[in-house]
Amino acid sequence: MTQEVVQAKAVFPSLEWFQLLKDMVNGDDGFRRIGTCDTTMGIKITDRQRYYLVIFEAFEVADVREVSEEEAEEADFWLEGPLSLWREMLENIKAHGKADHYHTLNTIDLELPEGFARSHDGLRRDAFYRFNQSLQYFFNASSRIDTVFED
Amino acid sequence: MGEELRIPEDLARVAQERGFPLDLVRRALALGFSPSLVAAQIRAGAQPEQVAAYLEEQERVRAGGEVHIPPEVQQLARQRRWPRELIERAVRAGISMDQVKGFLESGLRADQMERVVILRERARERGGPPVTLEWMNVKTEWGIRVKPGKKGLTLGSLNVGSYGDIPDYWPRQTEMPRGAAPNPLSPSMGYSIYEKAELWADHAADLYEEAIQRQWKPATHIPWDDIPPLPEPLEQALCQLCTYMCQNAMVISDTIGKWLKEMSYGYHEVKVYMATAGFDYARHLDVFRKRAYLNGVGMGRQSPGYYLRPIKDARRWTEASTMMFIFNTSFLMHLCQVGYYTARSEGDALIFSLTMQDLARQTAYGVEHLRYFLLRKPECRLEVDGYLQKIEAFFAYEDDKDSTLQEALVVLLGGGLGQEELKRGWQLLHRFRRRWIADYLWRLEAAGMPERRQHLFFYLRQWLPQPHEATATPGGMS
Description:
The structure holds two protein chains of two kinds.
Chain A: E1 8-12, H1 15-26, H2 29-34, E2 39-45, E3 50-57, E4 60-66, H3 69-72, E5 77-81, H4 83-96, H5 105-111, E6 117-118, H6 127-130, H7 132-140, E7 145-149
Parallel strand pairs in A: 1-7, 2-5
Antiparallel strand pairs in A: 2-3, 3-4, 5-6
Chain B: H1 9-18, H2 22-30, H3 35-43, H4 48-62, H5 71-80, H6 84-92, H7 97-105, H8 110-125, H9 204-213, H10 218-221, H11 232-260, H12 268-294, H13 309-312, H14 317-341, H15 346-376, H16 381-401, H17 404-414, H18 419-446, H19 452-455, H20 467-470
Helix pairs in contact in B: 1-3, 5-7, 9-12, 9-15, 11-12, 11-14, 11-17, 12-15, 14-15, 14-16, 14-18, 17-18
């Protein structure tokens, strides 16, 4: 994946941060080349009670929204963890330009007792695997954001 | 132009509607052109002046007149090494000079042109026309236009108008594509699946597009130059896992191929998706074989294959699909999770994550098809339960009788052959298997079979999530 020089500053978690990521990915041919991605992904930063929805459609991120916990859980699947977990993942991405093996979505999912990707539906959760390359690319793009974490 | 050259009513009406002179129609019929051909030419907008010139030339030539070949056609003929006699034969057989010129310009060789002329001459000798154009009047739906969307022009987007009517029972035993007009000459092809419930999944066309769009190429997508060998026992264990993946992929690919020819043409969305699924497994054979060879170890030991036998022997597509695309893909995803988790290079991790991507798509078909099937055939629920009992039992037998694969996974997960490493490996394998069984049961629940949790084959129950875990979201490795 080609990473460009930084860019922009935003606070995580915030809608602004996700919108920035959306714009970066939508302007990136590399994301398109992976192939179509049609899924909705919830984001839950549990200890901050902050919830987001990321909507992937065809070759782009169609929308990002700040939502309620219930709405986040209506997604095909959601990624759930405390801010410390999100921070470790995003800082690792920032440091290496992309997640190292121990900080990919897959590895985190396998490491956590309850999993990182969760869902209410056994079929819809498989979207996490079906589109995993696209989802990882999405988060890897955050290496181009100068992320500031909430205290 | 005697009495026998009376113009048929249909043809006369076409000519009158288009203002086409009837005397030209009579002259064309006198030269042996069929009424349907003449009507088609009029409908296509043939200009009376051009037709008159053509007919005049045909009448003159057929009366023994010399064929006049324009200089530019002569020049082209010399370049293509066509003899003059060939052009004369062509014109006498009813081919216009413009058509001759077109054939020359398109690069037709003399021997090819001679075959065209012979066909025309034979048609004339039989007294029949060279073409009937009856196929232009078939009763299929016209006027359908589909615009590309965000994903381009997709297969599913074509299902509009009458083309979107996908019947519950497909009445044709021939190779007729859905939406085409039947041809009475077509023979029955002996398919065995004519009922939608027996193979359908609503998102089959979308899965096909997804498979095409997200396909990857083992030769170039994997950074082969950057996968260093693992320490010897781990490299050997990985190659054993790769060997298993290769064998499994070949069996599933074979099984899909066997069933493809059973599916009638009314449900092409499933057929084309299954073609991509077969290709997925070809790719898996490819990538795992390459990985096994990469660092000098090569293939490991064959699996007994007991467990794959009922998949090959399935007598109903839903049986094969449920075994392949729910039980087997869940198990293969479990193996890929172990492979991914223990990967020590980006290349190895990529191999397993891309394979999981394909397997999850196949699982999506398996679950959706089973759900569709059970909604329409609830009386078959026990039968499906029996399929699952059979595949689980065969798996248990193989897993118990042959520890090759388990041991390879333990070595990978433990990180070596020492006592502590093997102990850690067994513990981790147990965790991964609990996750596998949880995901497998959860997929069956999504397909409409939550009761399988209670019926799970006893051997697999050692990895059954505890009741309190069952209510939480599966997927974790508690």
